[in-house]
Each structure stands twice: as structure tokens, then as C-alpha cells.
Amino acid sequence: MAKIQAIRGMNDILPEQTPVWQYVEGAARRILGSYGYQEIRMPVVEQTDLFKRSIGEVTDIVEKEMYTFEDRNGDSLTLRPEGTAGCVRAAEEHGLLFNQTRRLWYSGPMFRHERPQKGRYRQFHQIGVECFGMAGPDIDAELLMLTARLWKELGLEGHTRLELNSIGTSTARKQYRDALVSYLSGYRDQLDKDSLRRLETNPLRILDSKAESTRKVLEGAPSLADYLDEESIQHFTQLRSLLDAAGIDYTVNPRLVRGLDYYGKTVFEWVTDSLGAQGTVCAGGRYDGLVEQLGGKPTFAVGFAMGLERLILLLETLDLVPESVNGNAHIYVAAMGEGTAASAFRLAEMLREALPGRVVITHCGGGSFKSQMKKADRSGAEYALILGENEVASGTVSLKPLRSGEDQQEVAWRELPALLRSRFGNE
Ligand code: ATP
Ligand code: MG
After folding, report:
1. Nearest atom in ligand 1 to 311's CA
2. Within a 10 A sphere around the Cβ of 385, how many other Cβ atoms?
3. Nearest residue CA, atom 5 of ligand 1?
4. What is the DSSP string of 231-281?
5. Residue nearest to ligand 1 atom 25, measured at CA
6. Residue nearest atom 22 of ligand 1, based on CA coordinates
7. 66-88 in b/e burial notation, b at 16+ Cβ within 10 A?
8. How far away, in angstroms, is 41 Cα from ligand 2 center?
9. Is the pLDDT of residue 259 over 70?
10. In angstroms, how far is CA 53 from the centroid of its own chain?
């Protein structure tokens, strides 16, 4: 019978890969914690309407990328394509936004029915951050500072660049939209099919078009910057000076509009040139209108999401994963002979206590000395500890270095913790 395989574009993350995932997630978690951001966990499935009402009906996501289905009650549900909508829904539902500021983050899988390719999958993972109740631009700047810190911690400084824009208030965008539509209408024959359709539905998204002919036409298009309202201009100017003061480089990209309807004022993307077309590793912006749009009180809000697959791909491409991130064991305890298994467990427990953070594997499943040593070697451990009946009787153990040329030696149990602590630098 044919074996059932995973769904196209939905990846298993295998044991060899999880160390680098944990490394990136751990760094993000630590940094977010150090800025006082709190984790929130939302369901993976929401009412379809939540996404339609927030992301916008005429967006790539809602038009063609959502996994939507009817559950057994006939309700229309959708696997979340992004986290902001669910985060706003949850925060509002539990009264987290009333008269207070919030700095929240979440992490988990998102689902979009896109064409799978390098850096683009149907199930992918994001770490997202959403801040509520702060008018900014200080909080906008903080978000960018904390992402910059993460890049630095991961060794990505200089490999990602920040693109920044202000897309103004909805009134400003409306005026600009009219100007853009009347300009583009004169070039209908040169626009790609998607852009032509968007001319009627969501013309700003045309700025995002990757089609060559459309990009040519856009070169002469009016610029959104010329339509910005005074308040947005001020917000943007202040944000820029905060970033300058923090030493964060950026370029202003007047064509940056983002694919979701709820953004206004600040929008940004962290981009790399090392991943080809899927070069955006982190993207976000301000969405002051969304909470109200979903039925809450008007609430200032700004956030971003980073794509973990792309980040990890980038680290691997640039060979920036530290050697220590390898999932290797440190110590492998082997035991041979009558009644040695219980001692092996006791020894291993003693070492776990004495050497926090070190990985101690106790051999299970029996087998010859040779086969146990083979497993010890494969575990990546630095040392094998070998217990036989004689060692158990004399309260010693054989310490066998697996990676260095050092000699095997007999060590008393009570001397072992100190010896290994010094070998591993666990002082
Ligand atoms: P793109 O322009 O690449 O399609 P997007 O604008 O649709 O990205 P967002 O909705 O802003 O992306 O999501 C934030 C981040 O999540 C992206 O910058 C990217 O790193 C990641 N991401 C988005 N879609 C995918 C996907 N299908 N597979 C892997 N990562 C993704
Ligand atoms: Mg997309």
C-alpha cells in the first residue's frame, strides 16, 4: 500500500533541525522578555470572518491563500494565516486593552495556501509582536530596536537591512489612491492582470507588484509621500530621529505598502539579499484602526511578525549557526554486567545534578560493549562513562574520552563531578 505523506508545503522539523529552531526561538524569547514583552498563546483556528474583517477582503491572503473549511456545525473556520487578528481578538475578548498598555508576543504555525518554494511554505512559523495603547513613535522605534538586537545576537547584523515607510492616515491614503488610479488608468494596457484587477479593488497594492511592465509604469506614478497628512509626517520624522539616535540604519522605501489592509502610518520590513525572492524576514507596522474595526474601542497598535523558516535558512546560508548548537550529548553512560543498570542510573542522576545544562544519556537496551560505544560515539558525547561489575564494586567508573586523544582513566565516583566540571568549564 502506498505510504501516506505530509501535505505539500507543510514540513516536518526533524530532530537534526530542532536545535537551531530552539536556538533562534530561545534568543527571541530572551530578548522579548528583557524588553518586558509578555507571551500570549491563541488558538490556531478562528472564525473566518475575523480574518476577512481584519486582513481585508481584497488581499492575497483572503482572496486566495486561506485554509477555510466548514466544521461539523456548519461554521466557517479558518486556519490562521497570521497572528495579529487572533491576538487582537483575544486581547479584546479578555479585556487586556481597556485603559492600559500592552506589549505582547506569540509564536507558532501559520497557514497559507501559496506555491511552495524556498522560503515559502503552506505551514510556516512566525514570532509575532503586538503592542497596544501607545500612540508612538517611541514604541515603533522600540520594536525596531529589539529586532535589531535580535539580529545582533544571531550574528545577522549587516546581513539584514531595514526598509521603512509611512503610509499615512486612511484619509491621506484615499486621496493618494484617487491620484494613483487616475495615473494608472492611462496605462491599463501595460499593467499585469493582477494589477489591472486591483485598479478596481485595492489599487495601493499595485505598488507592491513584482511584474516588470507594471514596475516600469510605476516609475512615473505619483508618490504617497506627497499626500501624507501633517500628523503622519511628524510621526515619521520623530521615528526617524529616534532610530538615528539609536544607531539603527534604514532606508525609506516610498513603495513599501504591505499586503494587509489594516496598516497605517509606519510600515517596515527587514530584508536580506541572501535568500533570493523570499528576502523579507520580518515585517510589520502600525494599525491604529484595527481594534475598533473588530468591534473594540479605538486603540493604538503596532506590531510585526518574523518568519522563522526564513531566519533559519538565512543563518544556515551564511553559516552563522554556532557550532555548539548541534544537539549533541555531553556524557554517555554505558553499563555492562549483572546489576549495573541501577548504578548507571544513579551515576547519571548525580551528574545531571552536578553539571546543569549538560546532556547525560544513559544507555538503555543492553548490547555488547562495542555496540554501546558505537551509540556513545553517535550521540556526539565528549565522554563515555563505563560501568562494569568491578567498577560498581569499587565505587569507580572508567572515563573514556571520545573526541580527544586523552587516555581512558579510572575515577572514583566522588571525584567525578569536580573532574567533569573542570573539563566542561562548568565551574
Ligand atoms: P511575502 O511578501 O514574502 O509574501 P508577506 O507580506 O505575505 O510576505 P507577512 O504576512 O508580512 O508576509 O508575514 C511576515 C513574515 O512571515 C514574512 O516577512 C515572512 O518572513 C514570513 N512569511 C510570510 N508568508 C510565508 C510563507 N508562506 N512561508 C514562509 N514564511 C512566510
Ligand atoms: Mg505573502
Report:
1. 20
2. 27
3. 259
4. HHHHHHHHHHHHHHHHT---EE-TT---SSTT--SEEEEEE-STTTT--EE
5. 120
6. 307
7. beeeeeeeeeebbbbbbbbbbbb
8. 23
9. no
10. 25
Sequence-ordered list of residues with C-beta below 8 angstroms from that of 165, at least 6 positions apart, any chain: 224, 252, 253, 254, 255, 256, 257, 266, 267, 268
- Express each pLDDT in 292-331 by its tens digit: 999 999 999 999 999 999 999 999 999 999 999 999 999 9
What element of type H or E holds 141?
A: helix 138-153
Do 382 and 351 form a contact (C-beta atoms < 8 A)?
no
Backbone angles phi, psi at 281, to 5 degrees: -95, -15
Cis peptide bond N-terminal to 43, omega within 30? no
Angle between helices 341-354 and 416-424 (to 10 degrees): 50
| pTM higher than 0.70 | yes
pLDDT at 340 > cutoff 70:
yes
Q: 86 and 93 in contact (C-beta within 8 Å)?
A: no
Rounded distance between C-alpha atoms, residue 289 and residue 302, angstroms = 10
Give CA separation, 240 vs 48, 114, 162, 251, in Å.
Answer: 37, 34, 12, 10
- Closest alpha carbon to 78 in 96, 54, 102: 54
d(CA 237, CA 137): 9
**Span 171-193, average pLDDT:** 93
